[in-house]
Amino acid sequence: PTGQRPQRPRSNSGRELTDEVHIEILASVMIKNLDTGEEIPLIQAEEKLPTGINPLTLHIMRRTKEYITNDAAQSDDDDRGQAPLTDTDGGKLKQKTTRLKKFLGKSVKRAKHLAEEYGEKAVNKVKSVRDEVFHNDQDDPSSSDDEGMPYTRPVKFKAAHSFKGPFDFDQVKVVQDLSGEHMGAVWTMKFSHCGRLLATAGQDNVVRIWVLKNSFDYFNNMRAKYNTEGRVSPSPSQESLCSSKSDTDGGMSSVPEDPEDKNLPFRQIPFCKYKGHTADLLDLSWSKNYFLLSSSMDKTVRLWHISRRECLCCFQHIDFVTAIAFHPRDDRYFLSGSLDGKLRLWNIPDKKVALWNEVDGQTRLITAANFCQNGKYAVIGTYDGRCIFYDTERLKYHTQIHVRSTRGRNRVGRKITGIEPLPGENKILVTSNDCRIRLYDLRDLSLSMKYKGYVNSSSQIKASFSHDYSFIVSGSEDKYVYIWSTYHDLSKFTSVRRDRNDFWEGIKAHNAVVTSAIFAPHPNLIVPQEAGAEKVQHAGALKADHTEVLLSADFTGAIKVFINVKKY
Question: Is 7 left (phi over 0), alpha (psi -120 to 50) or beta?
């Protein structure tokens, strides 16, 4: 014998995956439906997924071998008798199955990427998935609106069945459309603290910064001052110098935009675009002095500054970074939450993890993170529905809330997608994938209010407050933007459960899943107070003027700006 070992079969990694092999793999992985407990092959689960699924959800589904169907939106412990208010599309599944088959037929070359392609594009119910997601017809500014709703027309308004008004947002208008820039979904949008800059990011790996027209000179001068002084970055990482240059307005930055559109709040082109991430962006966080952190599925967090074109620092993690937040009182520190189950408090000047802690339990994925009580506590949200508090000073465990209903299908905790503090009252607003938003009182961890009406069973959609905390806004998988009053206006309702708020108002201006919706923190910068000055000065009016500015973004990359002037 020559001593040769028998030839081992070559692994698939060496050659292109064929369609058949891929289907085999998808068919052999079993996934559990969390709603019914039944196990089905991954390929079927991916067909059943709600439209507008995002890659993070797909990744978590593969990793945990669990998924949730869209009907989780409907039933709950305290509304079993009611008919569902959301439009469920019964015919979608059949269409989707046939589309998947067609899709498979064509994609021999792309079989390797089948799952990603499917997750990002094929689930969007559009005439031509590709064109819509990638805005191929760029000359048509309203290409993402196949129902023909250019932004000059009023938006469609609806409200909860039992809610007869008076409404706060039935007169809302779309005043600007920032679509056509993002290729694919926008997963996150954040205003700077001053309210003059907006950062948007998502599927195309690029962070875009938009500036209010009336603030352009201020930031442009700041950038010019930095660049003429010829300083180099405060010790950027080597690779960021070569790879992460950002585009600015192509050298045209000092040219004013055409004056006829004076009343558009934002400049129509981004102030800058930050390139460097190599996968979907998941979260953004601003410091008070215009530093911006971005986190991504490429397992990094990057630091930028509004005056600089290049990335200042790259913080490497070992898994997807789902959430980041600057420390509210000391912006040398930030918190990151990752799918590896660790929360880390980073020291930016030292580029090191100062403190870290780890989530216990079976499913340790961290899916949301923030600070509350002005930085006293760090709080994270997990895939299995827990909100865990740590005291920031030592990052030691403090307490936790299991976010779930007492009865019904939502008694299992679902993925936490967002955590927002309500500062004045020592409360936090928690969004989760059981299609509920909950306001908890941190003094005794009791539930102050539960909001429902929107659909969020598989997305990273998160709710947030208006500038004075009187409203809550959220995107939704049914293509609407949803708004609730934070507290019941008891003059509108006589007998109503004090801790339940089903009295939503909905705005339809998108034709795809609304992935993000936020209020501007300083609406008076965008709508000068004179505009709302015909308000009646009635005796003791607490809310003298309620002009709100809203932004929403969707699965195709469309971004809309709304103004709502409320006269009392």
Answer: beta
Amino acid (one-letter) located at 482: Y
Q: In this structure, is the dihedral angle defined by the CA atoms of residues 347, 348, 351 and 353, taken in order, positive or negative?
A: positive
Give me the pLDDT at residue 31, please.
77
pLDDT at 312: 97
Task: Tell me how many domains the chain contains.
Answer: 1
Q: Is residue 248 part of a domain?
A: no
pLDDT of residue 411: 82
For residues 371 and 428, the answer to whether their CB atoms sit within 8 Å is: no
Query: With a threshold of 0.85, does the pTM exceed it?
Result: no
**Placement of tokens 């200042």 in the chain:** 312
Find residue 483's DSSP bridge partners.
Answer: 473, 505
> Would you say residue 515 lies in a domain?
yes
Tell me, what DSSP letter sits at residue 258?
Answer: P
d(CA 78, CA 75): 8
Burial of 352 (0-12, 13-18, 19+ CB in 10 A): exposed
Distance of CA 433 to the CA centre of its chain: 13
CA 447 to chain centre: 24
Q: What's the domain range around 517?
A: 157-227+261-526+543-566
* CA 472 – CA 152 distance, rounded (Å): 25
Cis preceding-peptide flag for 150 (omega within 30 of 0): no
> What pairing do the DSSP bridges indicate for beta strands 446-452 and 500-501?
parallel
Domain at 416, CATH number: 2.130.10.10
Amino acid 13: pLDDT: 44
Do the domain assignments include residue 474?
Answer: yes
Q: Which residues of the chain have pLDDT under 50?
A: 6, 8-17, 72-94, 96-152, 234-255, 260, 531-544
For residue 444, is it within any domain?
Answer: yes
Cα-flanking dihedrals φ and ψ of residue 392, to 5°?
Answer: -65, -35
Strand order in the sheet with 386-391: 366-372, 377-382, 386-391, 396-402
Distance CA 230, CA 335 (A): 32
